[in-house]
Specification:
The protein has 184 residues and is an alpha+beta fold. It has 2 domains: 78 residues, 2-Layer Sandwich (Alpha-Beta Plaits); 90 residues, Alpha-Beta Plaits, CATH 3.30.70.260. It has 5 helices and 8 strands; from the N terminus they run E-H-E-E-H-E-E-H-E-E-H-E-H. Helix 1 packs antiparallel against helix 2 and helix 3 packs antiparallel against helix 4. The longest helix has 14 residues. The radius of gyration is 20 Å and the shape is globular.
Length: 184
């Protein structure tokens, strides 16, 4: 058995996940992970599935494309490759960075440049920009892994300075604290 990544993009509508999961099931595949979201009116879904030995990527892609193309959706399927890389994330802890402020170009680029400089890995990013000058309408939530061995005081200072330059209110909390405070 081999694993594949299936990406589906296009206009949102009910039934997309049902169609993808039905086809994968009918071809003897097992869905292991799914990440799906709607950005404005666009659907974006990523599925990791284990294929039955007799099923090829071409078969999966053909069945999915035939079923989803009439809905205006695009499909991309590739092998999930496990390669050893030179990069290994150092020991780290999970934090949540939240920014709020007026919408303008360069907000994500500015914050992520600081994160990259310190080797901080972004594991999830939610950005909602409704436009305009109301800071509460424009929110970014970064889930990040911050390496234990960086200069945390300097990192926080550089991050706050960049936020100030971008006219953003910024909070940085350990992920466990963020989850406790924001529990429903």
């Amino acid at each position: 058995m081999h694993k594949v990544i299936v990406s589906v993009l296009g206009p949102d509508r009910p039934g997309i996940i049902a169609t993808v999961s039905k086809i994968l099931f009918e071809l003897g595949s097992n869905i292991e992970n799914v990440s799906q979201t709607i950005l404005q009116e666009e659907f974006s879904g990523i599925f990791i599935a284990t294929l039955a030995p007799e099923v090829t990527i071409d078969q999966i892609e053909k069945y999915l494309t035939d079923s989803l193309k009439p809905m205006g959706l695009r499909v991309f399927v590739k092998h999930l490759e496990r390669k050893a890389t030179d990069f290994q994330m150092p020991p780290s802890e999970s934090f949540v960075i939240t920014t709020m402020g007026p919408d303008r170009k360069g907000l994500v680029a500015g914050i992520t440049a600081i994160l990259a400089r310190y080797g901080v890995n972004v594991t999830n990013l939610q950005a909602v920009f409704k436009g305009g000058e109301k800071p509460d309408d424009n929110v970014m939530i970064y889930e990040v892994d911050i390496p234990n061995d960086i200069d945390h005081q300097r990192f926080r200072g550089d991050l706050r300075q960049k936020a100030q330059e971008l006219d953003l209110d910024l909070t940085l909390q350990h992920k466990r604290i963020f989850e406790e405070i924001n529990r429903l």
